[in-house]
């Protein structure tokens, strides 16, 4: 479950537009996604035509007579796309929680009750750095910071980075952040010089995807729909689908590096284990045989596929890793047990036949 806050104290920089359309694009790609509207303005809920009595307020408040869990307030928007709506009451929750111990972790505790039932949880934050935004960052591992290519937006980002550092220091919780350039107007020279500035400042911490200005995003919002439903061929839909792919790719990269880690650990383990074993070679000439096994103390005298010999020009052989020790063994040639004709070191067994002996040192 990847929990991502979409936050910036700057109003109107595209937080809600990103939250709605990124959620819709992830859902379209088969990712089970929950959008949490954590803004008392309820723009994400209204932007999806949801005007709900029950909201995050009922989940976070301790004084409401109608206390609910996350699962009780969730509204299905589309296939794979759920919404936890907000309403105006949420505005009072910051004051309600002001004196409460652990008030910064309230949302995290409640989200934990969802038991990993989503691939992605996106949280649309209000345009300030108050208790709700702090709760959101505390519950998240990642923060998307939308930056409109206007003059004042970078100040907002710097303040938000300060807050994430503070959360790291005070609550011992680390989040990664990535800047998303939004409402980019390629007709303006100013946009490009701002983009340059952002790139210089944040380089690696930026999404490759840029969200261009697109009137369809505004129209979809007015119609209470994601742009993907409203006009899937629009620039806005393409930009948000590209952002979703970028996020999903980073997931895959993390999974691959995880896999590499596991592979390296396995190789190390095999290396360590193999030091305990010494390779013993078993060989017998049997040109007309169809199958030859070796059985002994090392495999409880069973005819095991792992102990089947290979043949080359009528000579059968196997190289087997054995621990140090003293072993008795026999060959089984086409079902017939016999001692190793090349090995004079033998011992009589209870059946009156000879077992071959092998010392691994
Ligand atoms: N790429 C875009 N192209 C055109 N219009 C956009 C784009 N992104 C956002 N808008 C419009 O800009 C306005 C503000 O966007 P939005 O509500 O997403 O910002 P916000 O950061 O959530 O605002 P707030 O801080 O109030 O929560 C909305 O009318 C929205 O439709
Ligand atoms: Mg908003």
Bound compounds, each kind once, are: adenosine-5'-triphosphate, magnesium ion
How many structural domains?
A: 2
Number of strands: 16
The SSE string, one letter per element, is EHEHHHEEHHEHEHEHEHHHEEEEEEEE
The main sheet comes to:
8 strands, mixed
Describe what you observe in this structure.
The protein is α/β, with parallel strands linked by helices. It folds into two domains: 2-255, P-loop containing nucleotide triphosphate hydrolases (Rossmann fold); 277-360, Immunoglobulin-like. 37% of the residues lie in helices and 26% in strands. The protein has helices spanning 15-28, 43-46, 56-60, 70-73, 93-97, 106-112, 131-139, 153-171, 189-202, 215-222, 227-230, 235-275; strands at 2-6, 33-37, 75-78, 81-84, 120-124, 142-148, 176-184, 206-212, 277-285, 292-296, 310-312, 315-323, 325-333, 336-338, 346-348, 354-360. The strands form three sheets. An eight-stranded mixed β-sheet has the order 3-4-2-5-1-6-7-8, sandwiched between helices. Strands 10, 13, 14, 15 and 16 form a five-stranded antiparallel β-sheet that branches. It has a three-stranded antiparallel β-sheet with strand order 9-12-11. The protein is elongated, with a radius of gyration of 33 Å. Magnesium ion binds next to helix 1.
